[in-house]
Amino acid sequence: MLGSFLGDVAGEDGNCDLLHPVYVERTCAAIGLPDEIAEAVRQGAARIREDAALADKARQFHRELFVERLPHGEVNERLHASGPDSGMLAAVVYLGALPQMISCYESKGIPENVLVDTLQDMAVWMRHHKRYQGEWGLGQTKWLIKHWTGMLFRLGRLQFIFTTYQKPVKAFRHRQTGRIAALSDSGVRYRADGQVDGTNGISDPVHGWTSVYTYDGNIHTGHLISKDGAALRTPVRLADAEWELVLEPGDTVLDVHIPEGGKMSHELCRDSYGQAVTFAARHFPEVPYKGFVCSSWLLGPVFKQLLPEDSNIVRFQSDYYVTPIKSDEDQTLERVFGFGTKLDDLPRLPRETTLQRIVYDHLAAGGRIYGAAGFLLKDDWAGGTPLASEVELGQADT
Q: Which of 124, 173, 367, 397 could form a disulfide with 362 if both were Cys (CB 3.0 to 4.6 A apart)?
């Protein structure tokens, strides 16, 4: 694997000096950093290497993050507060983790191309740092620690992370038809429109309501999440004899993320789910995950009204059972118009793309946009398990 390229820069203990110029050169080439970024890293590593105090900091942070595996939140916070060179220091420290990452991948038999594809985010976030900070460096270490410690894997168009399902939703499959239904867990405050109270900063103290879920050993009673991603106030009953509980909080799932850049066709996304199923079975057979989950602006229910059925966003949504979360328009604005964009910037926003114009027109007319969550059960990824309707479920006595 890539580890062979490190051989002659390793010390007697087998470890590599992350500041060694040959190590820096080969690491940049191995993960495919673009020339302009690789050159910036080479120059940055040279500056750090020549400053004894900075060099000690780099080695210390690398040891704490990737050898001792100390809590990364606190270490990353100190790393970014370490001085005016903290952005480049972070980039060099993270690139120094390649030997540990290679060892992790080799222990699982994960192929080299997955490692290289996964680390494409390094260039993405270094470009962001350059764009918004005016200099090369790295600022998204809270996110990238997942890549560099073997928690996140890019498989085709999408990224995947093994995690615990934490949304207050229980999913059921009809034992004969295979149809899927989802009930809200207890204790969620919803507005009259079925969205989580506080979505877009709007509460509904008069007409809002709080969900209740009960199970008597035979019947699950709760509030259905409709196919439009809204909770329904009138409870329904699902009998064990007809409905199997297939997903609930605490279950292991694969969290789906959509990396920046490149076409996001429905076909590419479906191919990624297939790759993930094969990948998990081959390299993590001990992990009994239930399916895929996603929380994103791309799952915002309003897009089904704003965009054509064959748009990539609507087709992406079609794979998921969409469930409401407390959200707002911030992520949509950042992804569509650029990081840092807020609703107050609306009059000055560009309208160069079709999506920008659609989002702008909707917001300018007083419309709201918010994100959502969703799940796709592992057994259903290959296609089209229908959702259950309210009529089929029946209502509970109120």
A: 367
Q: How many CB atoms lie within 10 A of CB 362?
A: 18
| Measured distance CA(357)–CA(360) in Å, rounded | 5
363 closest CA partner among 336, 384, 386: 336
Note the pLDDT tens digit of each residue in 23-56.
999 999 999 999 999 999 999 999 999 999 999 9
Measured at the CA of 309, the angle between CA 304 and CA 314, to 5 degrees, comes to 55
Asked if 255 and 294 count as a contact pair (C-beta separation under 8 A), the reply is yes
pTM, rounded to two decimals: 0.93
Which residue, 220, 223, 291, is CA-closest to 253? Answer: 291
Q: What strands, in cross-sheet order, belong to the sheet with 169-174? A: 180-184, 169-174, 243-247
Kindly list the distances between the CA atom of residue 358 and the CA atoms of 34, 258, 334, 355, in Å, as whole numbers in the listed order.
Answer: 34, 21, 15, 5
- Residue 155 host element (H or E): strand 152-155
CA 148/CA 98 separation, integer angstroms? 7
